[in-house]
Amino acid sequence: MTQVKRKDQWTAEDDHKLATTVLEIVKNGGTQIHAFEVAAEKLSRTKQACGFRWNKTLRHTYGQDLNHAKQKYQHPMHTHLKQAMSSYEELLEAHDRLQKEHAQLKTFVQQIQRVCLESPFNSQKN
After folding, report:
1. Could you tell me if 42 and 19 lie in one domain?
2. Which residues form a coiled coil (predicted)?
């Protein structure tokens, strides 16, 4: 008896396309539902079929990868804020360093002025 192959049977290639689509979209901040919609277009299937296949078969195989993809994604604003705070901290450090240098230079100038006023050459001019 020959086994009849269903037209809509999932192949290993279909599974791979579905899995890579889901993982890529989730890694970039998308939802699994959106990933099923995108995969449905790629595979000429319904989003429900893609979701069912993922949840019934592939989720167990790719569950760890999915968790990693979810953790890896950071909202672009979060990254931008981290960079801004880092720059702000660098500016604060530079500001503190410049204030100290300014105070040292001011003290140095005052010492030079005192020495000049006390200099015997200064009294000869008057």
Report:
1. yes
2. 81-108
Instruction: Return the structure tokens found at 15.
Output: 């599974």
- Please, what sign has the CA dihedral across residues 56, 29, 35, 11? negative
Residues 6+ apart with CB under 8 A from 38: 21, 25
Does the pTM of the predicted model rise above 0.85?
no
User: Rounded to 5 degrees, what are φ and ψ at 7?
Assistant: -65, -35
Residue 45 domain flag: yes
C-beta atoms surrounding 40 within 10 Å: 18
51 near 31, Cβ under 8 Å?
no
Tell me if 7 is assigned to some domain.
no
